[in-house]
Amino acid sequence: MVTRLAPLQQRRKKYEDNPKQVWDILEAGSARAASVAEATMNEVREAMKMSKQDASPAQGAGGP
């Protein structure tokens, strides 16, 4: 069991020793996810014949 877990423990140790690398990986993933989400929403708006402005919350519905 110990020999099977050793590679996982080594990989965890690598990230534990370099938290900046972990944050860099998370930030890159977040940026990529935001980009993909934006592209998806553009496709949805186009398919529904909506503009980005149409998707904003209506004024007077709890907003200023």
What does the model show?
By secondary structure, this protein is mostly helical. It has a domain of 35 residues. 70% of the residues lie in helices and 0% in strands. The longest helix is centred in the middle third of the chain and has 29 residues. The chain starts with a helix and ends in a 17-residue tail after the last helix.
List the keywords:
64 residues; 0% strand; 2 helices; elongated; mainly alpha
Provide a quick synopsis of the model:
This protein has 64 residues and is mainly α. It is 70% helix and 0% strand.
Q: Could you say which overall geometry the principal axes of the C-alpha atoms support?
A: elongated
Q: Helical content, roughly?
A: over 70%
Distance between the termini: 60 Å
Structural class label = mainly alpha
Please tally the β strands and state the result: 0
Task: Return residue spans where pLDDT drops below 50 for at least 5 consecutive residues.
Answer: none
Number of helices: 2
